[in-house]
Amino acid sequence: EVQLVQSGAEVKKPGESLKISCQGSGYRFTSYWIGWVRQMPGKGLEWMGIIYPGDSDTRYSPSFQGQITISADKSINTAYLQWSSLKASDTAMYFCVRHSGLYGDYCDYWGQGTLVTVSS
Amino acid sequence: DIQMTQSPSSLSASVGDTVTITCRANQSISSYLNWYQQKPGKAPNLLIYSASTLHSGVPSRFSGSESGTDFTLTISSLQPEDFATYHCQQGFSTPHTFGGGTKVEIK
């Protein structure tokens, strides 16, 4: 069974750093792109970026480029989303997703979400 | 970035109704359009990919179609468990942008 299990909720202050994780199981982790999706409170979904754990090739949405870092450790089947200096506007639910598709991409499996709250 | 415009943003319907949600891309995305269902407090679930292919386990009352850059999700005979928010997403090129979402509420 394919599963993506994310790390728990975080409460941080503006300016602090944070790294959240997503561990995949039940499939060959290095053969699928893993992505991150943001959902701000009461809002829609925003695609942030993806990484291919096999070779660490990474693509970012221009909206998030420079604001986040996506990485992966294939030895422990885990992808990460990282901030060096959080802002209050980073408060959101963050989902990791597995990308599939031979040509067009789709997100066939989702993590349970990690709620990040940034408040002074 | 490819822009995805989803409409309506919300609708009210009754059990048994047929519901239609539309998503328009501002440029060609071939057939690479996905639909997701999200219930409150939960992660989205994939319903349809490549415009009309049902994901494993998705009931056949859900269907997708396309006409150029316009895509439609149809839910036939709406069931109580279908009241949720629906999101479209283009899978043609990165960033894989989403539409704004459509909340389907009980009338």
Explain what this protein looks like in three dimensions.
- Chain A has no helices and eleven strands.
- Chain A has strands at 3-6, 10-12, 18-25, 34-39, 45-52, 57-60, 69-73, 78-83, 92-100, 106-110, 114-118.
- In chain A, strands 2, 4, 5, 6, 9, 10 and 11 form a seven-stranded mixed sheet that branches. Chain A has a four-stranded antiparallel sheet with strand order 1-3-8-7, with no helix packed on it.
- In chain A, strand 7 (69-73) and strand 8 (78-83) form a beta hairpin.
- Chain A is globular and about 45 Å long.
- The mean pLDDT of chain A is 97.
- A six-stranded mixed sheet of chain B has the order 2-10-9-4-5-6, with no helix packed on it. A four-stranded antiparallel sheet of chain B has the order 1-3-8-7, with no helix packed on it.
- Chain B is mostly beta strands and 107 residues long.
- At the A-B interface, strand 5 and strand 10 of A face strand 4 and strand 5 of B.
List the helices and strands and how they pair.
The complex is a heterodimer of chains A (120) and B (107).
Chain A: E1 3-6, E2 10-12, E3 18-25, E4 34-39, E5 45-52, E6 57-60, E7 69-73, E8 78-83, E9 92-100, E10 106-110, E11 114-118
Chain B: E1 4-7, E2 10-13, E3 19-25, E4 33-38, E5 45-49, E6 53-54, E7 62-67, E8 70-75, E9 85-90, E10 102-106
Parallel strand pairs in B: 2-10
Antiparallel strand pairs in B: 1-3, 3-8, 4-5, 4-9, 5-6, 7-8, 9-10
What keywords describe this structure?
heterodimer; A: 120 residues; mainly beta; 7-stranded mixed β-sheet; 4-stranded antiparallel β-sheet; B: 107 residues
Q: What low-confidence regions of chain A span 5 or more consecutive residues with pLDDT below 50? A: none
What is the structural class of chain A? mainly beta
Radius of gyration of chain B: 13 Å
Q: Average the pLDDT over all residues of chain B and give the rounded result.
A: 97
Note the quaternary state here: heterodimer
Q: Tell me the β content of chain B.
A: over 45%
Number of helices of chain B: 0
End-to-end distance of chain B, in Å? 36 Å
Topology order of chain B in helix (H) and strand (E) letters: EEEEEEEEEE
Cα shape of chain A: globular
